[in-house]
Each structure stands twice: as C-alpha cells, then as structure tokens.
C-alpha cells in the first residue's frame, strides 16, 4: 500500500510540474524585434568617400534609404587612386546618413604596429568628428583586413562596431560587433572581372535571390550590403542596376532602415533588458523603446520603464 501511495505521489508531482504555469512561463523564449515591431533591418554600407558618393547619396535619398559611409579623412580632397570628396562637403552631403571610420590613410591594419593602428583609427575618428559635428563610433576595416592584434589595439578607442568584407550570405546578427561580417557585396561578385558576362549574370542572379530570401523570410533578419560608389563609375548600366535593387528594398513596412550604429545601439539596449526570473516583468534602462515577442505576443517596452508581461 505504501508503495502504491508513493507511486501516486510521484505521478501527481510529475503532472503538476508539467502544468505549473510558472514553470511553463520560465521555459518560454523571448525574441527581439526591431523598432516598431519590425522583423527585418537593412544596412547599406559604402567605403572610401569617392566623388561618386554624391550620386549614390542622391539615389538613396530618392528612395528614403539610409546609408553608412566609411571615410579615409587623409584622402579627402585628393585625387590619388581616384577623386575623393572634399572635406567641406562631408557634413551636408551625408546629412541623415552615418559617417564612420575607415582609417586615416587606408593601409592594411594587420601589418602595422600597435601604435600605428591606434593613430590610423584615432586620427580618422578625430577629423571625421570635426567635419560632421557628432561622435563617430563605427568603422569598416580597410581592405576588410583584421586580426586579434588589430582588435586588441582598438580597445578603448571608442569604436563600437567594425565591418569586414567577408560575405556571410546570411541574415544573422553578428555575435561580435568588432568582427562584423556583412551579408554580401553589392551585386555579389558581378563586375569584379572585365568581360565576364556569364559570370556577371550568375552573380546577379545570386544577389537578387538573396534579396528575395530576405524579403520573404519570416525570421528576424539583417540584410547588410556593402560596396564602393566608385565601382559604379560612369557606367549607366551599373547605376541602373543600383537603382533597381534600391527600389526592391524601399518603402517596405516590415523593414527597419538603419544607420549601422543605430542598429548596434538598439541591439545593445535589448541585450541589457532586465527580466524577472519567471519572465513576467522587464525593466528597460535605456533611452530606446524596445520591442520583444513572447508566445507570439508583441510588447513595446518603453524607455526607462518597468513593464508587466501578460502572455
């Protein structure tokens, strides 16, 4: 009889634990959403500061897109390699967009000494801040090159993300913002080699397939496209291709159009939300409203507030 009673108690206890609402809630996953509850984010990231940025920014503005532009301050105003923008036009040209570090002189940072890496980054950051009038906190590695030595040298320099050129062909949020791998180069690798029409066609098909995948996915997704405006040159066909993909991505209610630093700030604010043990309340100490989803219920956790989560 005692054995039967023990077995019944064990069964009862097991059943209770399976339906205990507190235990059930603690097992629920919390998902991040982008501002306004959006599930997608778009970053358009361009390097060097060539004079073709004028036309590229005009095209972005036409479609209400936002760009992040990584500039070499010591090359501005020169015609070495190609014609660069003038310093006096930087602030007005990139209004509404982000200006970011790309090193002062565009060397490969991995071959420099620690002190030279520091000067390349700080000199560029300081001059760009003088030009635009706000803190510059992002970066793209020149040539996309980085290693542990470079990242160690960057500690304490005020750089909060740094983009490589290693295409991931996915839409995942980077785990390490100083090793930021973009989704893909503009047009994938089309036009990288002259007189290769079949290869160009294949790469463009891949490029537009990834854009369609991004637009169709139901998962949280970041599409990060990078490139250089000087790649368009004076080739109207390339500019037409650029406008084509801008049109595809513009005016989509599910997309958060972001400066790269704004996306970083938002993700960091989400990661710093403070949840109760049973996930029934959350405190948001940031200055951003943060959107989350629990059990298909969307919550807007207001900046500087504590919220009870009923789901």
Would you give an account of this structure?
- Helix content is 35%, strand content 19%.
- By secondary structure, it is α/β, with parallel strands linked by helices.
- Strands 2, 3, 4, 7, 8 and 9 form a 6-stranded parallel beta sheet that branches. A 3-stranded antiparallel beta sheet has the order 1-12-13. It has a 3-stranded antiparallel beta sheet with strand order 10-11-14, with no helix packed on it.
- Helix 7 (197-216) links the parallel strand 7 (184-185) and strand 8 (221-227).
- The chain is globular.
- Mean pLDDT is 93; it is low at 1-17.
Architecture blueprint of SSEs:
Blueprint: H1 2-19, H2 21-26, E1 30-33, E2 40-48, H3 53-62, E3 67-71, H4 90-93, E4 98-101, H5 114-132, E5 138-140, H6 148-154, E6 161-163, E7 184-185, H7 197-216, E8 221-227, H8 236-249, E9 255-257, H9 260-271, E10 274-275, E11 281-284, E12 290-294, E13 297-301, E14 305-308
Parallel strand pairs: 2-3, 2-8, 2-9, 3-4, 5-6, 7-8
Antiparallel strand pairs: 1-12, 10-11, 11-14, 12-13
Helix pairs in contact: 5-6
